[in-house]
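JOB MANIFEST
job_type = single_chain_structure
chain_count = 1
residues = 235
[input]
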Amino acid sequence: MASRLEELIGVPFNDERLLQRAFIHRSFLHEHPERIPGMTANERLEFLGDAVLNFISAAWLYANYPAHSEGDLTALRAALVKTSTLAGFARSLGLGTYIQISRGEDTPTSRNRASLLADVFEAVLGAVYLDQGLDGARAFILPFLERQIAAMLSGKAEVDYRTRLQEQAQAHYNQTPAYRMRAMRGPAHEREFTLEVFVGERLLGVGSGPNKQAAAQAAAKAALALFDGADSLPL
């Protein structure tokens, strides 16, 4: 199995057990503790891979996008490391086929679950880091990041400004942003929606788009400019 996985991800391992461990879900070990003596589940590798991913993506964005503000870089990084993005990376490699999970969870739906796939991808990155060092981890992950950023900047993938704004609002005020419709213009086939975003009673941003989701993203992006570099904002 290890050799197939090495070929799949394009990384020859010195310690194949590291790669094998990346695919072992805790439910499998609970059900079959005797199958792989001394082997542990992938949760620790997942933890490590998450940290490595955040560092590499932040350093790469910093070096390659010097004109972007801290807020824009943070939003780009959040889009790169979110669960749905990592699950997409895992699906592109077909990693779901190789995850070892319990019989009770072993269904096509379970194997395609975004959270499971994202966790395995992070565990694989953690394993690559331990086996190949930071340079090896960077060589493995950068092609994924480059393709995803290109898709986001071309409009084919979305930077999740709403999630970033929610994180900022909760960190500063322990409140969740609220979106309100300001206007809807144009005929049915060419609608333009304008939304406002509030934290408490303060209007933080206004955005427009061809649907409510796009307008909310635009409003959140505008609001993030207020948070960029600010320690607090009076409400």
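[summary]
Residues 71 and 228 are 5 Å apart (CA to CA).
The beta strands are 178-185, 192-199, 202-209.
exit_status = 0
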